[in-house]
Each structure stands twice: as C-alpha cells, then as structure tokens.
C-alpha cells in the first residue's frame, strides 16, 4: 500500500466526524460533552502533522482523536463489545500461546498486537504461511463489523539503521493490511504506518526485549455510525 492515500482517509474521517458532532453520548470510558472544536483540533492537527512528518503517528492520532472528539453514537460501546468478544473467542489459542494480545483502550478502540516472531521471519516482510489462519479469523470479523476504521502499525527492535527499521516496519504493516484487504476487508477502511524502532515496549538490550519490540499492532477504531440502528 502507498502512504499518500492515507491522507484521504484522514480527511474522510474528519468529514464523517464533523457530521456527527451533535451526538455526545458515548460508552463509559469516553468523556461527554466534547464538541466540534475538539474534533476539528484533533484531526486538523494530525493532518498537518502527517503532511510534514511521514515517519508515522499522524494517522493514528487522527483516528483516535476523532473517536475522542464526541463523534461516537450511544451504541458504539456495545458494537465494540461484540467485536472484542468475537476476537477473543476466535483467537483464544493465539492468545494462550502469546502470539496475539487483545486490548480494549479508551474511546472504544480495540488494539490487537501480533508478535513478529510468529508472523514474519527475521529481516523479512513476507507473512509466514502458518499465520494465515489467524489473519483469516481477524479478516472475517472485521468484514462483518464494517463501521470501523483500521490502522496497522509496524514496529521493530533497534538492530540495524533507523531508516532501514522504519522501512521494514512499514513493509510489514502493509503486508498485514494487504492480506486483510485480500480477504474481504474494504480497502477504504484501512491505513498503515511504520514506526520502526521509535516506540519500544521493552529494552533493546536483551534478546527477549528485542523480540517484544518486533510487533505489528492493529487498531480497530469505531466511527460515528458504529452501533447505530
């Protein structure tokens, strides 16, 4: 996937979010009363950031900022609850084997973290065939819950140059996104970012820490129509 079309995703999300700013009732983790100013600020700031910094982060900020900006409907929480339940049920084996982690974040966002140890060979952006089954489950659920935007973010450890790691992380994110698209997830819902070694979750001084840092994250972000009747 090319990165330039991602800006269109941000712009479309801005338009969708503005059309729903009058609806401020959200699930328990989302603050009420956020108005049009907060949503415009979050998304326009992210668009400017994306235009000036292609190293990653702006699209994620736009999507998450939009969800926090008061655009979600009253049924978004239940809509995301159902998805989370399905992810946990279908991916229970992968979770037990520490291949995939599933988290519920603020603003009803779901985050799936996949270990690169089981999804990619070392120094490769080609998906392991053994991981296709897990991605098939993810794609099936995503296709049946279309009222979300999806962002795939790649991460690496600090071995190698910063630019190489940035490129590798984006190629891996694109590989996951393209696989999901090829299995029924609409392309217009999808965005990718590569963050390279910039966001470690463990120390790069140990083999175990480096393994944890090599990961792909999928953010499933509800839009204003999520859960609407």
Explain what you see.
This protein is an alpha+beta fold and 229 residues long. The protein has one domain: 60s Ribosomal Protein L30, Chain: A. It has helices at residues 6-19, 36-52, 58-68, 76-90, 92-96, 116-119, 132-144, 162-182, 207-213, and strands spanning 100-104, 110-115, 148-155, 190-194, 215-222. A 5-stranded mixed beta sheet has the order 1-2-5-3-4, with helices on both faces. The longest helix has 21 residues, at 162-182. Residues 2-56 have low confidence and may be disordered.
Summarize the helices and strands and which ones pair or pack.
Layout: H1 6-19, H2 36-52, H3 58-68, H4 76-90, H5 92-96, E1 100-104, E2 110-115, H6 116-119, H7 132-144, E3 148-155, H8 162-182, E4 190-194, H9 207-213, E5 215-222
Parallel strand pairs: 3-4
Antiparallel strand pairs: 1-2, 2-5, 3-5
Helix pairs in contact: 1-2, 1-3, 2-3, 4-7, 7-8
Give the overall average pLDDT. 78
Note the main sheet. 5 strands, mixed
Number of strands: 5
**H and E order:** HHHHHEEHHEHEHE
Query: What does the radius of gyration come to?
Result: 17 Å
Strand order of the largest sheet: 1-2-5-3-4
CATH topology label: 60s Ribosomal Protein L30, Chain: A
Number of helices: 9
Amount of beta strand: 5-15%
Q: How would you name the oligomeric state of the polypeptide chains in this document?
A: single chain
Offer a concise description of the structure.
The chain has 229 residues and is α+β, with helices and mostly antiparallel strands.
